[in-house]
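Narrative summary of target 7.
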Amino acid sequence: MNRAWIGFGSAPEGSMKSRIHSFGLKLLSRVRPSEVLLKSVTKDVSALEIVHPASINSRLVRRRLRHIAVRGASVHKKFLYGSVCLLPVTSVFTVLPLPNIPFFWVLFRAYSHWRALQGSERLQLLVSDCSDQWKVLEKEKSNSVKDDNPSENGRYSPWKLRPSEKLDRFLESKNLDEGLDCETILSICQEYDLDKIDVLKYRDLP
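Modeled conformation, tokenized:
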């Protein structure tokens, strides 16, 4: 399926395949940033390091992460079931001479929701308050890594919050209600080695 998608992208401009590829890119650009975040939290992730503005309380940051994880688990489970139910419906388009784009799109979305659901559950484990659940993570970490991630009470903690005054300086005198301008976003991306294209495409999402 990936090869077919690449083939659509290399099709001559103005052709049907090129138009389908452009339409697919528009659909992909509507994927929420939270879904991309959750998909990046794989089962191999056993520790988190979160950099946040120093002006924001660390507890608030952690609470927000828990909210993203809990809400993500609920939302992506619902959409996963919905996508799976749509697969038999879209499969009827195989009788057409054209590629069954609806089927492959629904299949892709089902896979994406499954990965986001797995990431939600993993993130809940990582930012939970229950130290008993961390025993699962401790088994996945070597002794050297354990020593590098102590919590406040000296026990192992899978998350580390790092307040950053640099981020505060980037955000000072900015009207955050209107969003960040491109110049500020590019500066943050350069400072923290982020992909500016990926960040900018989510800026104007409703």
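Residues 57-140 form one domain.
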